[in-house]
Amino acid sequence: MPDSEELEKKEKREFMRETIVKPPLTRKQIAKRVALFVCASAAFGGVAAVSFAAVKPFADRCFQENGMQETSSVEFSKDDPDSVSPSDGADADMTAQPEQMEQEIDEAVSEALSSYQFSADNFNSMTSVLRGIGEQGDKSIVTVSSGKQDTDIFGNPVENTGDYAGAVIAESDGEFLIFTYADAVRAADSINVRFSDGTKIAGTVRQIDEVLGMAVVAVPSGNLPEEERKKVQVLSLANSYTVKAGDVLVGIGGPSGQVHSLSFGTVSYVARNVQITDGLTRILYADISSNSQTGTFLINTAGEMVGWTSESCRSESCTDRTAAYTISSYKPILERLTNGASAAYLGILGQDVSRAMQGSGIPAGVYVTEAVSGSPAYDAGIQPGDIIVKFGTKEIGSFKDLQAQIENSASGVSVSVNVMRKGRDGYTEIPFLVSLRAR
User: Of 364, 181, 369, 346, which is closest to residue 274 (Cα–Cα)?
Assistant: First the structure.
């Protein structure tokens, strides 16, 4: 028989192999933990997110400096509004919980939030982070000064100057490419770009879009002192289709009327499928102070541009809020302007022919609500009420189709545009030869 010492060692070894298991949490304990998590998220989640976003441009720049320098044409990612999920971000697993569990969690959350107080320190922390995002974004902002020769009432030559905000959106082939307002460069006898250290560099107009009043200016980056050149940040263009009501945005550029000023606020409304010349877009309405004459660019908490302000997109029903065009709708045109190519201009406002309209006998396509006076479409003979069904060789079923064809066309070319026009005997297809011009 084994002695007592061997038995004792065996028992100890078996004991050491045992696993101590904690009892499972009750539903009440789970509910309390969820409530605690929600409160912590409400207080610190937003701060953590924007804090991370504040360092993103610096990290991007570090990676870009260690990577290969792009020498080809500038390209911006294209965004599809249909690819954005309509989900509000709720956890799908939570919605699958039993009804009793949901009720217990709701009660625990309500109890926890009722006793939670959002302090001044919490508010100051959040505004501090937003200010940091704005200051980081301001590294992409320059002052575009235009000089125009004129004469005073006595016939003496004078030079009128104006300062506008510009945003550096790309660096290619030794040039900074700056997105600014057309008023800053239109009919200017001289253009100077002033950087944050006061250095002025003569700029040249790459292209102008008169339809939306925007322009791209190029300046040689090599003319800037090396230390200052390293400070300049390229402002990334966001997918603005993801912006929703309630999102916090930061206004950089010249929201107060002075370049390098700053403001921030929330999006109160997003207007979708707004008719603009040759397309549909989204308009952001936000309680952010802005000055569309000096120029204001809106960035998200990741430090990316989502839009820019303009008086031309303000709605009569939203006169008390800042209106801004969204950048995603403008990326294809902006890419052409940045690369020195003009964007094609057809000159129509319209809307998709809905299923209800088709049910009443209207052909599928783009219903023309207005042919802009003096535009290529107007000069060719296209009229309000026409249905555009073909552009070149492409069948047109929606405004999205037409907008893509216009954006892919070159200015200065003639293209066949077929419309369905209603007459006494119904709709008849009529071809028009339209000479596209630059916007």
Answer: 369
User: What does the CA dihedral 336, 338, 340, 345 come to, rounded to 10 degrees?
Assistant: 40
Contact partners, residue 6, CB within 8 Å, separation at least 6: none
Per-residue pLDDT reduced to its tens digit, 280-335:
999 999 988 876 678 899 999 999 999 999 876 655 555 567 899 999 999 999 99
Name the residue ranges covered by the structural domains of the chain: 27-67+90-118, 140-231, 240-338, 344-438
**CATH of 140-231 among 1.10.3720.10, 3.40.1030.10, 2.40.10.10, 2.40.50.140:** 2.40.10.10
Beta strands in 232-335 (DSSP E): 248-253, 261-276, 279-286, 296-299, 305-309, 322-326
Among 260, 250, 253, 307, residue whose Cα is nearest residue 129: 250
Q: What is the dihedral of CA 385, 391, 392, 393, to 10 degrees?
A: -120
pTM: 0.73
Amino acid at 245: A
* Other Cβ atoms within 10 Å of 373 Cβ, number: 8
- CA dist 316 and 312 (Å) reads 11
CB 172 within 8 A of CB 70: yes
d(CA 268, CA 298): 14
- What is the amino acid identity at position 408? N
